[in-house]
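Researcher: Please predict.
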Amino acid sequence: MSKRGHMKWSEFKSLKKEVKIYFMILAFTALALGMSNQVLSNYFKDAYNVTAFQRGIIEFPREIPGFIGVFIIAALVSLNDIRLSMFAQVLSIFGIVVLGFVTPKFSIMLIFLFINSLGMHLFMPMSDSIGMSLVDQDKLGMRMGQFKGTSTAFTMISAMIVFVCFRWDVFSFTTPLKWPFILAGLLLTVVLFLLVYLEKTTHHQKIHHEKIKFIVRKEYKLYYTLVVLFGAQKQIMMVYGPWVLIELLGKKADTLALLAIAGAFIGIFFIPALGRWLDRFGVQKLLYADGISFVVVYALFGFLTMGYVSGVLPTTGWAVLLGYFMVVLDKMSTQMSFIRTVYLRKIAVDSKDITPTLSLGMSMDHFVSITCAVLGGVVWGTWGPQYIFFLAAAISFINIYVAYKVEI
């Protein structure tokens, strides 16, 4: 391991086969999401010309899978984590490939968007659970940082491809074939085959979830609080941050891809450092940093948006560059999300609690996300987009209070 926390090739070669496969799964998943999930806002605008209110409504079929995911995982208890991940990939592939080949009417599009999102959300807790089961627990923070860093690096590569292809009109969301979505389906097919290989390599050992129960322990109350807060925060910025650039500043997919490249490039160095700092300074100090970063980013973005709307700030030149900077800064803030997963691992009363608690946390997160996405569209249309970000900044003070209450 280098002093900076990045993995050398020699170390990668020395890893267990199943860990190598997992790194490859993360890489191809990140490439696929960069071709699909990361460009959906531009797809909605270019293909369907949606309004801010409609953009909020779209989040219902996109985020409801995150809420119901725990019920589906419970119903599929006979499948181990890897096989459930395979099922999730099949759903993701089907949903996104259909949208790649046809442009259905808006209501039908939402159905396939739901199918793709369901697969994606089922894979999220399974991916974390698989990853934590494969690593040595004394290196958990470092390895989780490397996992996240790998995803970020390949997100950057995907964003570079998206930028070049949209800038030179290779990709378009106004043509009959949506090549980003078709390529995403092919990449997810690779992930599916890698999961098959991983199962053969592990022989079902360790990576199996128990029957999911709604485990609500008082010991996890701060974790529940963190996931609910993040559900509100990430949804507001994920949906309405790019929408400020698209709707108010008229930016296209190539611009958003450039910002994704910048955020991912920084993340390649920032995330492994986070994992290293997590092992060195502990969860509490990192949670303080997480909360403070949310307050600062959302408050500043709110004032910036207010300037665009009022005309005090120009929609060209330095003011636009400042908006770009805030979006990249938010990407760095959201990259700290794996701290919550490590926190849960450290406070778990029983290791069998982790997967069901991650799943329950995802459901709580997405219930709040759905609500905030819809309310955000109402706030945008009624009072102005800046108040969405001021609200996010205000609730982020609770993150700082939670960090104060954490005792590890």
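Model: Residues 106-134 form the longest helix (29 residues).
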